[in-house]
Amino acid sequence: MRKIIRFTPLLPKPVWKLCSCRCHTGSEAAVQQSEGGGQIQNKIKKKCQRKRPSCPAVLDHFDRQYGEELGELWTSARTALLDPRSWQYGVMLNRFSVLTDITQKLQSQGFSALLPQTNSSASLCANNPSSTEERDLMLTPHELHHYLQSKPSLQCYIHPLSLRFPSQAHRPGRLKQYYLINAASLLPVLALQVRDEDRVLDLCSAPGGKAVAIMQSATPAFLCCNEPDPHRREWLTKTLESFLPHCLSSRVTVSGQDGRLLGQTEAGFYDKVLVDAPCSNDRSWLYSSSIQQGAQRLKDREKLPLIQAQLLRSALSAVRPGGVVVYSTCTLSSYENWAVVEKILEDFPQAEPEDLWEEIAFPLSNYFTFSPPPNQKHAHPKKYALTLDSTRHHRLGLLVVPQNGKMWGPMFVSRIRRKE
Ligand SMILES: C[S@@+](CC[C@H](N)C(=O)[O-])C[C@H]1O[C@@H](n2cnc3c(N)ncnc32)[C@H](O)[C@@H]1O
Fold first, then answer.
1. Burial environment of residue 272 by CB neighbours within 10 A (0 to 12, 13 to 18, 19 or more)
2. What is the pLDDT of residue 171?
3. How far away, in angstroms, is 211 Cα from ligand 1 center?
4. Is 204 a catalytic residue?
């Protein structure tokens, strides 16, 4: 039976319970690392992380695989990934929180908006001047609709240098104002094109960064955040509670299913499904805590494409005909990216890949370095064979490759529409 966690809204403290109906909610304080005692500091700290040693076995493996797959692009990505002090962090604003001071601070310190903004002056404070308990924001569905119409949608501030805005500690009764995020993580959410009243499934949801971004982009009728790992699910529910007011509790749910099975139990129910799949997380794997951990990860890596394909297949079953599935990973590995998408397209004739170049890559090319699918002619004979025609081949997806000054990614994004 599907386990869903729900909190009872409009109480001073959320009360959580497990129940078996489809609709649910999650929440509580996010587990972002906190710097500077939780206070937003006027001065941005230059990240003073010491240079950490990388894991030789993982680096060697990446050199062989990515050197072959990405050529020169790997040489520069390697340099960037091996210097964590150069890593950049975006500041995703929370439209349900009081924002005025944050926006001013960001702008005065040289941050600028990554995405075009709609109504940046609107804030919870403007609508509810007396509200200090943002989480307990009490609105009827009608009022909620009007309130959200005045809200700016997804906003993320980025800095051209590797400056890190301090993360925010838990504030009792208050929502967090922002979430620190790798800006490339917003691309799968943009590709999902969530509209108000969509039914959305975030199949692999913890710790919840993309779920928060989805709720900044639109007001779905229903967002199911699924995470089978109990500890990560707890983290997810805390993230949701830190960022969403109680009045959204009937729309956002947390479930703990194996995502590979959800397609059967919820066949055709969703308009949009995000598969932000478990993958070789290149950034963190490079800094594996021991040689043994690095070796184990490389061994387990071989199993990932199968799990990813099973999750993507399940997502295509969960989405209604005409709906879309976005598949994303945070690895550069072609086996976990293009190869998984191509395999699924072979198995699923009713699935059609969609072009993200015009919509996402070209407009954002000042901020991100995108790599197209590997050229068919140069595909290594032992690798997967790209057999699609060139237009379809181009539509397989986008790969964001970190580069000096554009330190976002790795992130692979592909959008697939279920035709029938
Ligand atoms: C890359 S992380 C997701 C990150 C998340 N979307 C975010 O933006 O914060 C992948 C998640 O998939 C989960 N996962 C692993 N196996 C899964 C499965 N069979 N079904 C669903 N989720 C799974 C992992 O526990 C992990 O939390």
1. buried
2. 80
3. 12
4. no
CB 203 within 8 Å of CB 226: yes
In ligand 1, which atom is closest to the CA atom of 276? 6
CB of 90 closer than 6 A to ligand 1?
no
CB of 14 shorter than 6 A to ligand 1: no
Helical (H) or strand (E) element with 18: strand 15-19
pLDDT band of residue 51 (cuts 50, 70, 90) is low
What is the value of pTM for the model shown?
0.85
pLDDT > 90 in the chain, percent: 65
Arithmetic mean of pLDDT over the chain: 82
Structure tokens at 221: 């009728």
The verdict on the CB of residue 331 being under 6 Å from ligand 1 is no
C-alpha span between 127 and 138 (Å, rounded): 12
Atom 16, ligand 1: residue with shortest CA distance:
278
Determine whether the shortest distance from the Cβ of 229 to ligand 1 is under 6 A: yes
Helix (H, G, I), strand (E, B) or coil at 397: coil
- Centre of ligand 1 to C-alpha 25, Å, is 18
Q: Which residue has the tokens 């690392």?
A: 33
Q: Where are the domains of the chain?
A: 22-33+62-85+184-418
Is 282's C-beta closer than 6 angstroms to any atom of ligand 1?
no
Report H helices in 275-362: 282-285, 291-301, 304-318, 338-347
Q: Which one of 225, 247, 279, 330 is the catalytic residue?
A: 330
Q: Encoding tokens for residue 50? A: 């010491």
pLDDT tens for residues 230-280?
999 999 999 999 999 999 999 999 999 999 999 999 999 999 999 999 999
Residue nearest to atom 20 of ligand 1 (CA): 259
pLDDT confidence band for 122 (50 / 70 / 90):
very low
Tell me, using a 6 A CB cutoff, whether residue 232 lines ligand 1. Answer: yes
**Could you tell me the fold of the domain covering 22-33+62-85+184-418?**
Rossmann fold (3.40.50)
| Helix (H/G/I), strand (E/B), else coil: 7 | strand
For residue 264, with 0-12 CB atoms within 10 Å meaning exposed, 13-18 middle and 19 or more buried, which class applies? exposed
Copy the structure tokens of residue 33.
């690392």
